[in-house]
Amino acid sequence: MHVGKRGITPRMSDKLQRVTVLGAGTMGHGIAHVCAAAGHTTALYDVSEGAVEAGLSKVAANLDKGVARGKVTEEQKATTLANLRGDANFESAVDGADLVIEAVPEKLALKHDVLTRAAKGAAPGAILGTNTSSLSIDAIAEALPDPSRVIGLHFFNPVHIMKLLEIVVGTKTDPAVYDAAAAFGERIGKQTIKIADSPGFATSRLGLVIGLEAIRMVEQGVGSPEDIDKAMTLGYGFPMGPLRLTDLVGLDVRLHIAEYLSEKLDEGAHFKPPALLRSMVAEGKLGKKSGQGFYSW
Questions:
Q1: Largest Cα–Cα distance of the chain, in whole Å?
Q2: What is the CATH number of the domain that holds 191?
């Protein structure tokens, strides 16, 4: 196994027992849920007690739904909750963690900050994962003392249901870190894909093209959001239409990623944000989180 710059060997997959998730929002609480359900001692951090409690409440609610549908037993629910704790103190949240996964907003400076701080407080050789959906893994890793420990762990919403984990490997990511991350993904019930660090990776890049084109079709009066979504769910077998998915992801998030990919990719003309997307974001129509997007929620 490669030894990092500070002489610290990243822990192997069977030693990734203690997990800390930074950010208790939509993605963060879901990531913490699946880690705890798989038997990992899991800490869920956010900047306020209220945010932490909201995240924990959502995990409990999703477990209750699983029990009601016969997908989760009462014993599994109890075990998951026993493995999970909330923490609004950063230092105690990351203390001794073998794996840290950040799920904070898509701002490079913010990701630099939380992962740099996590690297100081986590266990020696801890793996540092980022749930970014579009930012460069190399750009995130360059600010850290040991970039070889950084890897992209891109989960999908809702995390406790979606089966995919996109593992994004930076140019300096230690191969042993990838192996450990892939084994970890399998342990938490995900099917993994290995993608090289590039703008938008595989999923955001492909999904965004379809989503933006669907928005242009609404803009041009080709069809209603409902009919365009139905075209993809019934005609192509998509589990969800691209416009409903845009509402769930957040129109502001989609706009941010579109602007980023349009700038970074030479062939980025098809990532240019439609005027309709910009106007809806400006009006505060952000999708499910605001109550109004292409659909009313």
A1: 60
A2: 3.40.50.720
